[in-house]
Each structure stands twice: as C-alpha cells, then as structure tokens.
Amino acid sequence: MTARTTSALLEKYDVPVPRYTSYPAVPHWQDTPDAAVWCDAMNAALTPDSASLALYVHLPFCEVLCTFCGCNTVITRNHERSGPYVATVLRELDTYLARVPALHRRPVSQIHLGGGTPTFMPPDVLTTLLEGLAARLPMRADGFEGSVEVDPRVTTREHLEAMRACGISRISLGVQDFDSEVLRLVNRPQPLEMTSALCRLARETGYHSVNLDLIYGLPGQSPATMMRLADSVLALRPDRLAVYSFARVPWIKPAQRKFKDEDLPAGAAKRQLYECLRDRLLAAGYQEIGMDHFALPHDALAVSARAGTLHRNFMGYTDRRTTALLGLGVSAISETPTCYHQNEKVITVYERRVAEGEIPTLRGHLLSGEDRRRAERIRALMTTGRAPLDLGDANDARRWLAELVADGLVEIDDHELRMTPDSKPFLRNVAAFFDTYLRSAHQDGPAYSRAI
Questions:
Q1: Residue 157 sits in which domain range?
Q2: Which residues neighbour 285 within 8 Å (Cβ) at sequence distance 6 or greater?
Q3: Of 310, 333, 366, which marks where a domain is finished?
Q4: Is residue 452 part of a domain?
C-alpha cells in the first residue's frame, strides 16, 4: 500500500465511531436496570465457583484541568475532600455487600484506581481505601493485580510506598507528551526530568510494571516533536505504553472548545504522528497490542496477546479476563455478562444517594442475547484482529463492508472476518459492522470521537 493510498484511506474512513470498550456503546444504552435487577445480575455473575471479580475505583479529584481531558473530574485544591470521599466509596461497597451475597466469597482478581488523579489523595487516605477494600472483600490467594494511575506532578515516594504496601504493583504515569509547547497548550506543564525521576522511584519501591500514557493529535504536535518524544520514551524504557488518539468531544467536555479545527492534526496527518512513534517502538523491541497499546515482550500484556488471551473491557486492554467488574465512586462503570451499570456523574448527587443507602445508578443497559453475541465478536476483533462469523453474518458483512474489502482492509469468508496486515488504523471502522445500534441510529448531534 503506497503512502498516497494510505493517506486517502485515512481521510475516507475518519468518521465518528465508538472505541468499543463496551457493546453497545454508552450512548445506545437502554432498559436501565433498577437496583434490585442490577444487584441480582451481579450476584448471578459471581455465584459460580469459577467466577472472578475486578474492582475499579474512580477517584475524581485534580488540582488543575488539563484541557485535552475527557474524564469525569472534580477540580479543586482542597485535599481535605479526600477522606470523606473515600468513606463514601467504602459505604457504597457496604451497600453492595448487603445486597450481593456472592461478593463475600468471590476473590478479587484485579483492583484499579483511576481518575481524576488518585495521588491527589494523601498517602494515608489511599491506605485507608485499599485496606478498607481488603477488609471487606476476599482477595485472590495468589495475589490480585493492583494498578494505579498517577500524575507525576503530585506523586511522592510516600504515595508509592503506601500503595505498594497494600498490594499495588502496576503504575501508569500520565505523560501525554514531553514537548514544553504542547504541554503549555493543553495546560499540563510537566518536565521530562520529573517523569524520569518518578519512573526510577517506582522501580526502586517495587513496582514491576511501569506504563506511560501518551496522546497523539494534540495541538502543537508534529512529526518532529513525536520523534523527540520517542527518544525520551525509549530512554525511560517503560514496560508498556498506551498511545491514545486525542478524543475531541467538545459537546461533552467544553474545555476542548479552546482548540480550533486548524490547531489540531486530523486524518492522515494525525495518524502520521502515531506512526512516527510506532515505528521507533517496534524497532526497539516493543510489541503492538490491540489498537493503541505497546508492551515489551516480558510484560503480561504482551504475553497475553501472544497467547490469544488478551481481554478488553471498560478499563481498556487487560491480560486478565474477569466475570464481573464492579465500579465504585462517582461515574464509575460496572459490568456483568448480562448488564452494564454506571454511577451518578455529579459528585454531590452521588454522595447524597450513597449516604441514603442507595445504589447510585445513573444509567445502565440490560444485554439481550444478541447484544452478548455481538459484544463477543467485537471483543475478539479488538483483541486479535479476527472475529468468527456464521453464514448470515458473513453475507451481511460482505455487503456492509464491501468498500473496506475492496480497499484491502478486511477479508471475509463464511466463518471469519480478518483484518489485513495494514489495516490496524481502521479497526474501529470494521468493528462498527457488528454494531446494529450504530447502523440504525439517527443521531441528533455528535456522539463519538473520530476513528483516526
């Protein structure tokens, strides 16, 4: 495929589509379960002896707003809000324990602290949270996989030691870029030396996997800045990287309105930024995982990808598949095989409802059998580049994906759909074939970031 052909295809398929951390995507959720139905779904999922549980805890506080951010955050410099918030999270878990008996006996396989900025909270408050979770729930006998997202600007040795003592062993550093002008434009000044020092400190304090989060498509980025970013990343040698496309959703995140269209690379120009970094990472021995992750061969994510056991859920790519994911905290998302659930997104409403002993449901979705079938095919495609088909699917795929087939991006036979070697940038476009909600939707306004 020539550079000109690739450029034309990137422009052609740069359309709004979901990222498919769930199917159906959140804008298409319907049939929100009441608390009884939701708790029954969680209990049913965790009842079999083979069941396993992952926990996600959303810690929303940040001192300043990064203008690229699409997360649910609370901007404040009042660190005294941390303790009461953790008490609320633990009370939410107590409410679940009273209504979901299987939680008392099903071991926790994963715990992930996300945000926001988890290390906005003082070390003793994080200890209270993690010890509170461990006191209430059984942990996997051979150890749970614990991970945390951190901001190098507010993270100290005391943070790292406190979390490591409670079983957290993976750390993800929010970096995005190292170019000072790019970081100025997105309101995130963060010197390379600060990130480098925290990487060293994480390894000194016993973290066995260090991840860097990067974003391409930000204002001020260019092929030259991405090459410099690659040099800096390779010098740090993280175990894995997440290299996300900037999801521009100003109708959801008003702070992104400060970026004008002409300030941001798009289409082929945007993808070129990713390819600059990708080429250097692959040459240095990293393995490309899914559509936006990289890992060194020893890392569990790379091992899982080679073994064909890679999983994808609301937390993104993971090397462990669990039966259920329980999300705690404001806006946190949970899932079972039959149901999705999201908490209230407004922190004052979340806190009030938890204080009143409620499950703080904002919305959810009851999955039909067809939803589950299609979700598994999308998950297979997003993790392996292949998805099984039955004869009806195959005939529909040939019609609906005719242009992608003609452009050499996908192959279809009676039993399987396969991405071709050059088609990774178009993974979301191909996954959309299975999305009957998207294919039949009549949107009144924008709902998703663009595919490229």
A1: 22-366
A2: 296, 297
A3: 366
A4: no
pTM over 0.85: yes
Write out the DSSP string of 100-139.
-GGGGTSPEEEEEEEES-GGGS-HHHHHHHHHHHHHHS-B
Rounded to 5 degrees, φ, ψ at 201 are: -65, -40
Query: For residue 323, which of 11, 7, 75, 54 has the smallest C-alpha distance?
Result: 54
**Number of structural domains in the chain:** 2
**What confidence tier does 375 reach under pLDDT thresholds 50, 70, 90?**
very high
Nearest to 212 by CA among 170, 269, 162, 169: 170
For residue range 147-157, what is the model confidence (pLDDT) as tens digits? Answer: 999 999 999 99
Say if residue 407 is in the same domain as residue 357. Answer: no
CA 22 vs CA 13, 194, 313, 333, 433: distances in Å: 21, 35, 6, 10, 15
Yes or no: say if 202 and 179 are a contact pair by the CB < 8 Å rule: no
Q: Which of 430, 422, 424 has the alpha carbon at shortest distance from 377?
A: 430
CATH number at residue 304: 3.80.30.20
Comparing 60-64, 111-115, 184-188, which segment has the lowest mean pLDDT? 184-188
pLDDT one-digit tens code per residue, 352-366: 999 999 999 999 999
Q: Which of 366, 394, 417 lies at the terminal end of a domain, its last residue? A: 366
Among the listed residues 182, 178, 248, 299, the one whose alpha carbon sits nearest the alpha carbon of residue 449 = 248
Could you tell me which residues are beta bridge partners of residue 339? Answer: 336, 366
Of 140, 133, 100, the closest CA to residue 320 belongs to 140
* Residue 281 and residue 392 share a domain: no
